[in-house]
Design a protein that fits this description.
mainly alpha, 5 helices, elongated, membrane, transmembrane helix, transmembrane
Length: about 130
């Protein structure tokens, strides 16, 4: 159970450290990864949703047993980036630094699955 708590705490803190600076980096991101962002609502919407998930991971780490069911959408959130990133990499449309970000999310998805099993409810005998 301790491992599961640490996994979610690390995931949340890592995500916040990586994502929060992106609020001030829209123009840099556009310059480094053309074409430029033309629909800023998607960029900032993405940041808002993903930052909310990072906060959820930190909250989950406080009482992972209580929030165990939230591990499922947490896995979906990670895989929801990994699968499109894999496809975009195969067709040559994803910049290599973002492949690294997808690899980290793949690792966290696997760790979340591990946490799911580590926090499984105790089996009752009848």
């Amino acid at each position: 159970m301790f491992a599961a708590r640490v996994i979610f705490l690390v995931a949340g803190i890592y995500g916040l450290v990586v994502l929060l600076p992106m609020y001030a980096a829209e123009s840099t991101f556009s310059a480094e990864y053309p074409p430029a962002i033309t629909h800023t609502e998607f960029y900032y919407g993405f940041l808002g949703v993903t930052i909310a998930w990072q906060v959820a991971y930190v909250i989950m780490s406080w009482d992972i047993k209580r929030y165990r069911l939230m591990i499922i959408p947490g896995i979906i959130e990670k895989v929801g980036f990994v699968i499109p990133a894999l496809i975009l990499t195969v067709v040559g449309r994803l910049p290599w630094p973002l492949v690294g970000a997808a690899a980290i999310d793949f690792l966290f998805a696997g760790l979340f699955v591990f946490a799911w099993y580590k926090t499984s409810p105790a089996k009752t005998t009848t």
